[in-house]
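--- STAGE predict ---
source: upstream dedup step, 1 unique chain passed
mode: sequence only
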Amino acid sequence: MEMIIDFPGGARVDAHFGQFTVNTDQPVMGGGEGSAPTPFAVFLASIGTCAGIYVLGFCRQRGLPADGIRIVQRMHSNPFSGMVEKIDLEIQVPPTFPEKYRPSLVKSAELCAVKKHFENPPMFDVTAKEVAVA
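--- STAGE serialize ---
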């Protein structure tokens, strides 16, 4: 998979892949216009939305309605470094959701590919290359 990252103006940085574009910006106090989430917010959102895909798949496979289910994601940061040290994902289910499926619902969310990449992070190779401007 390849993504093209470009700089459409101001503090905006966009990622293009396939038919999609993910827009990011910085808040006004960070020199941006606040027109889109920050790259870090998009990164954090990928955790909860990935878990959500697995929760939704679990429900669909069993013919269970996903109506009323939501995931609340909470980040806990180190006050000194500002780095996120812990992420909580709380799957909230309606009272009608069968109790017997709750542990399996949690296990399905833990299969999230984004979470698995945290557990086995990829290597990074950052380079700079001169190219002709078209």
